[in-house]
Amino acid sequence: MKSTSRRSFLRGIGGSALALPWMESIASAAPANTVAQRMAHFYVPIGVVRRGFFPGESDDVIPKGNLGNVMKSLGKQNPNFSVSPLENLTPTMTPLEGMKHKVSLVTGMDRTFQQGTDVHAQCASCYLSSAEPFTIEQSAWPLDRTLDHIVADQIGKNTPFRTLEFSCNSHKDNKESIYFDNISWYGTGHLAPSIRDPRKMYRRLFSTSEINRYRDITDLVLEDARSMKKDLGYSDQQKFSEYFDSIRTIETQMERLERMKAELAQVSFDEPPETYLPRGEYIRLMGDLMVVALQAGLTNVTTFMIGPERWDTPYLFESLFDTPRSHHKMSHNQTKMIEDLLKVDLFHMQQFAYLLNKMESIQEADGSSLLDNTIFTYGSGLGDGSTHQYNDLPIIVAGGTKHIKGGQHINLPEGTPLANLWLTQARLFGVDTERFADSTGIVKSLLA
Asked: Taking burial as the number of CB atoms within 10 A of a residue's CB, which of 59, 68, 133, 447 is the most buried?
């Protein structure tokens, strides 16, 4: 077979390349054992219910299948440093049971709140910058260039997209400012706008202006690929089929949600029609697009915001409730809504687990998985949505097994800056810096 790079293997109309995952049969420009390292962030708004997420936060145990059994008394996190095996998962973390050897729970990390700005807006917009309060003179927010763009300077130079920003906020009511609904920033005051519409993200990844708008991309690419597929080995033919099946599945899901949205638009609701779109299906569709982008080398750096901060517009958390619910409103009525909030936290963790398992199933050039080569961090800018605390943030670091250890609960000393984790990740990706924001050192226990 004629030597060619994997990104130019398949070409659609107008010469647009549809990138492919690594294949043995295709001579790559890079050595066969060279695998790209990636970084991804999964952001959960409004914090979590502490007693369901954190070890030691309750004296009672929530029985499986009965997450609404409210605990009688609260415990307290150990304020001292400790590292222990991640054995018995808390109720909110149970979806990670099959992957716990590749995840580490990191507790004890804080961010310092800058007085005079909104709690929810600051916790989202400043999450990945963690600037020290009152150090950014040209802004009311302690908002600096975020970690994803700093890392992309090192590992995003040769990808079509240096970074990709995904958001699962389908609403258009614009109740809040951009600071409530974005975690990625090129710099102070310079937003890296996220894409919230799956169709727009799909077109950004794969489309060109010359492609007929009524013909889907896989049809076009498969026409060109059919004559070349016979030159692939058996295992590569299987990968080829899996890859295009996944893209075809994404197209089918998009079409289904678009039909549903069109139908809902014809009905009179008190809330926006987007309120009634199935939440989990929408999140997983956006997640599938993120995984495809990482798998095919379209980008090495992504952020994934699962929902906006504070917005009261409700969502339909399918399988949880009969009617749409507002996550923010529930968080401010935690005493009465504890059962429902625990369900929402578990629901979000299930979406994270879905993406971990999907990434683990994708094999790379050296036999490792996509997850092994991606440091994928779950986190929130609030420790508790009802009290708006910035301490003891819920953080889980998954994947990246060539560089970090899994299967651990790392409890850091009370008051450890969240920026210590960002400094650790920045250095792992080759960023030469002594400090990141208000960091005081790296998280050594996380390193392999």
From this structure: 133
